[in-house]
Amino acid sequence: MSFSSALFKTWLYRAGAEPLVEALSDLADSGAVFIVDADSQILFWSKSAEKLFGIGAETALGQPCHTVLHCDGEGDPCNLAELRIIKSQGLNVHLPNGVTLPCYRTARAFFDGNGVFVGALEIVRPQTESQPASAGDHDSFHGILTRDPLMREAIAIIRNVAETEVTVLIRGESGTGKEIVAHALHLESPRHFQPFLAINCAALTPSLLESELFGHVKGAFTGAVRHHIGLFQRANGGTLFLDEVAELPLELQAKLLRVLQERNFIPVGGDAAVSVDVRIIAATHRSLREEVKAGRFREDLMYRLRVVPIYLPPLRDRRQDIGLLLWHLIERHNLQGRRRIDAIAPEAMRLLLDYPWPGNVRELQNVVEYAFAVGRGSEMRLEELPPEFREPFGTAAKLPLAGQTGARSGDEAGLIREALAQGGGNLEQAARYAGMSRATFWRKRRKYGL
Ligand SMILES: Nc1ncnc2c1ncn2[C@@H]1O[C@H](COP(=O)(O)OP(=O)(O)OP(=O)(O)O)[C@@H](O)[C@H]1O
């Protein structure tokens, strides 16, 4: 219950209710504020909602809330007329760009003088920002959590360059967060409610990659039965994230350079140039300088791409992030309600801290998932860690660091073979076993002919 003086009504009349709602929603900071009517139609959509969800007011206003935000989570998230007030309800919001954002939702229903439900005011916050654990000791930035000075530096760079149009090159091993960082940069930029699209240049054959990036016209090659709009056109106005850019074949490097310089390209089999306005963010686990020296990467393109380089350190070099991310991931699984972990056995924690994490944060996610799948009870125990934790880390430390140059090929091929055997035909499981993304795993298999 809040209190207001008798003069408040007069003041409200003069100041206007709408500017007041706008000002209050601005003060909610990272929380997305919106108002729906009794039919769930969105009447008010704050700037912070645009920013958090990457959905513009012109798309959201007048639409039923459930067609704009696809949510699931604890209980029925829409039953507001009955519930009247909802406080910090955990839910996942599935965004149009395919990202799932774990959030907390607070909402209040409104009723007219006759007690008829007229709608609700809702505030949705990203989970990482309202958990008690996040108080003060770490940074939380568009889903990126860290206590590490180098990661904090990376976040500071993102904040500084987001407003500009410079190209950014993110360097880091597989699973260190290159894509989440690229997405954060997009969300901070003036392009945030235009598309953010991502492609892994290592995961497709050169001809498929060209088609995927630049599109093709009907009849461009056997099988091109219809026109295909490429990612550059689909990302128009927004951002295109080119992961593993060092794997781009030389002929496509020339085409990419042209888009960067002239902002246009010719689709495969086409004869007319298409103009686009796309911000490029590229990432690689390799040193582009080394690739240039080896003649595999164009020097002019390297300079175009790495105007602002950002380095993401591997997880083994930022041990203080292990506990932070571990608990963040445990909280996310706890919300699903099947098991609740509120302690980690000290011997398990010791191993988790000592482990070399070749697959970085993605591997940490897999470890938590594994523990939730195989274990029971409120404590995460040593026996719930995946098999590799039961071997001496001498062996684990010798594992190739996923995606790193210089990894010993013999060991790496062995790891891939072992992962394939463990996965028993399931490639997702095999990639997980090797601590790699599916794309990286696919690339390594191809490399060793496995
Ligand atoms: N600092 C972080 N805080 C929270 N989640 C993180 C962080 N870093 C990475 N993640 C999560 O870890 C997973 C892997 O991250 P991401 O896909 O961005 O890595 P990547 O470097 O692009 O990997 P790859 O090169 O193999 O594609 C994602 O689910 C991402 O959300």
Strand order in the sheet with the most strands: 2-1-6-5-4-3
Oligomer: single chain
Look at the helices and sheets and give the structural class. alpha/beta
Kindly estimate the percentage of residues that lie in beta strands according to DSSP: 15-25%
Biggest sheet features: 6 strands, antiparallel
GO molecular function: ATP binding; sequence-specific DNA binding
Keywords: ATP-binding, DNA-binding, Nucleotide-binding, Transcription, Transcription regulation
Domain PAS: 17-63
Protein name: Sigma-54-dependent Fis family transcriptional regulator
Question: Can you walk through the features of this model?
Answer:
GO terms for molecular function: ATP binding; sequence-specific DNA binding. The chain is globular, with a radius of gyration of 24 Å. With 450 residues, the protein is of the alpha/beta class. It folds into three domains: 7-130, PAS domain (Beta-Lactamase), CATH 3.30.450; 145-311, P-loop containing nucleotide triphosphate hydrolases (Rossmann fold); 315-448, Orthogonal Bundle (Helicase, Ruva Protein, domain 3), CATH 1.10.8.60. Helices cover 40% and strands 19% of the residues. The protein contains 20 helices and 17 strands. The termini are far apart. It has a six-stranded antiparallel sheet. Residues 128-135 and 395-410 have low confidence and may be disordered. Helix 7 (149-161) runs parallel beside helix 8 and helix 19 (427-433) packs across helix 20. Bound molecules: adenosine-5'-triphosphate. Adenosine-5'-triphosphate (ATP) is lined by residues 143-146, 172, 174-180, 243, 325, 361-362, 365, 437, 440.
